[in-house]
Amino acid sequence: MRRRALLARTALLTTPLTALAGCSAFGGDGTDTPTDAPSESATDEPTASPSPSPSPTPSPTATPAAARAPGDALTVAEHTLVRSNEGSDSELVGIDVVVENTSDAAVTNVDVLAEFRDDEGTLLGQAEADTARIGAGGRWSVELLFPGSGADARAVADYQVVVRRSD
């Protein structure tokens, strides 16, 4: 399964940003879920490897409390920063996100936006995904891939996930 995710990320990396991110305009109701990715100084051992890793490795960050989107029952139930090929020119970074509909009714036109930032808070890139419907009590798992690789991907130190309805 992780091999497919890595191949999908690599394929997405070669597509134009507009196909990857979709419409990147902000608007509508949304919930921001800021998180801090761990810095290398937070560990006792170096984590970068000069050779590519065979599969993506999740970051050791704890998942903060779920965030709710105002006006509906959408919750960011899980989110994890994932890196693959760490330390190489083909290093990739993405976020695995699970959005949950905690209501008794289906929710339509759901967008998830990820903003990738460096350790100074500078916006490095965005990725977006959408779904037409999440059923009552349903969950939607999505991978949002940073639009760069190598040194650009290594610069990602923080991210923010925004869930919104586009209707």
TrEMBL record:
Taxonomy, superkingdom: Archaea
Compositional bias (Pro residues): 49-61
InterPro entries: FxLYD_dom (IPR047676)
PROSITE patterns xref list: PROKAR_LIPOPROTEIN
Chain intervals for the UniProt region annotation (Disordered): 21-73
Protein name as annotated: FxLYD domain-containing protein
